[in-house]
Amino acid sequence: MSTGATGTAGPGGATLELELYGPDPSAAELAGLREALAAAGAARVERTLLTAPESDQRVAELVEVATLIVGGVGNVVAVVETVRQWMARRHAATARRAVTSAEEEAVPRVRVTLDGDTLELVHPSERATDEAIARFYDRHRTAGGDGVGPSGGPAR
Prior knowledge:
globular; Gyrase A, domain 2; 6 strands
């Protein structure tokens, strides 16, 4: 599901599209994510609205997706790590309460798109996911450093 506004970089930083799959996040969860993204350096975070399905897509096949456009990003690593931390907190909160529906059992995932390059995050992550994240960081380093450590993870 694409909004057409993904991954553009400008003088004010990069723009990322975040597609949040899985159990629908509450308003409080989305507000917390927005605050965390702003603290990580995002100049703006906007939620896009779901558009009509493509003509060959049946309504029964639609998956609810909350899509956020994150703009003015100078440090892609900080934003991706913020999303990973948000997913971990959300997973922990779900694990503490009783699951009441199959929807709540769905594995939450977030698709991050920058300049047509997509990274899919799941929690808990596996080694293959961690390696994909490191490669994504390598592809999106900025000149002069962006807080990426030698292993591809954040500098400590």
